Amino acid sequence: MKPILTLFLLFSASLIFSQACIPDTTQIPANSFIFPVPYQDTVAGSGIPNKACINTPYEQVFQVKIPSTVEFLGFNVHVEQIKLNSIDGLPSGLSYACEPGGCTMLKNTIGCMKISGIPDASNAVKIYPIKLNFTFTTLEFGSLQLSFPDENIAPGLYEIDLRAEGSAECIASTDRHLIDLVHKAYQNEGSLIFDIDSRDQINADIELFDASGKKIASNRFFIEYGKNQLSMNAGKLNPGAYFYIIKTGKGFASGKLFIY
Description:
Layout: E1 34-35, E2 52-53, E3 58-65, E4 69-72, E5 75-88, E6 94-99, E7 104-106, E8 110-117, E9 127-129, E10 131-138, E11 142-148, E12 159-163, E13 181-188, E14 191-198, E15 202-210, E16 215-223, E17 226-233, E18 240-248, E19 251-259
Parallel strand pairs: 2-12
Antiparallel strand pairs: 1-3, 3-8, 4-5, 5-7, 5-10, 6-8, 9-12, 10-11, 13-14, 14-17, 15-16, 15-18, 18-19
C-alpha cells in the first residue's frame, strides 16, 4: 500500500525542529493578519475554539501572516515588523511561545503563536478574557503599541473557557498518564490511516485537529492487543500541520503530523 501523501509523526516537542508551533496560514481571512480572529457572533469560525480544563494539558495555536501594509486611522501604513510582547489574562499554568522564536515577525513572513500548559487548581472555573499585546513597527509612525482584540481595529473577544477537571469537552483526557501505544499516521486514497501497536484491548476515540485547534474529524475504535490498522475519513486535508489525540478511559496519547 503506497500512501499518496506521507504524514510524519513527531511525538515530542524535541522532534519538531524545536519549534513552538508550525506556521500554517491557509485559514487566515483575506482581511486579517491572524487566525482565529476575535469572536463575534456574526463571524463564523471566530474566537478561541479550544476549551481548557483544570489539571489537563491545553494547547491553542494562533496563525499569523504579516502584511507589508495595513490600514490604520484611515492611512495605508507600511509595516516593518510585528512583535508579540505579552498575553494578558491567561489562567495560571498557561504560557505562550512563538515561531519564529522571540515572537518578532517581519513583513511578508508567516509565523504562529501557541498558548499551552496545564491550568492548575488555583484557577477559578470561568471564562478568561485575554488580550494579545503587539508592537507594530511602521515606516510612517514608528512603533505602535496595539492590543487585540480592540474595538476600533479588531473588534470582538478572545476568551479561554476553563472547565472543571474531568469535563468531556476538553481537548485532552484528564487522566494525564500516557497510554502505552506506538502509533503513526499517513493518508491513503483520501482516508487517514493509523497504525497502532497496543499492549492492551481498549476502546478509543481518535480526534484530528488542524493547526488552529479546530476539530477536523473524530471516530471511535476498538483497539486490539498487538498491531492495528484503523481508517478514518477526514475528507480532503490541505497541506500543513495537524495533531491528533487518542483518548481512552485509561489515558491519552497524542501526535503531531504534517501533510506536504
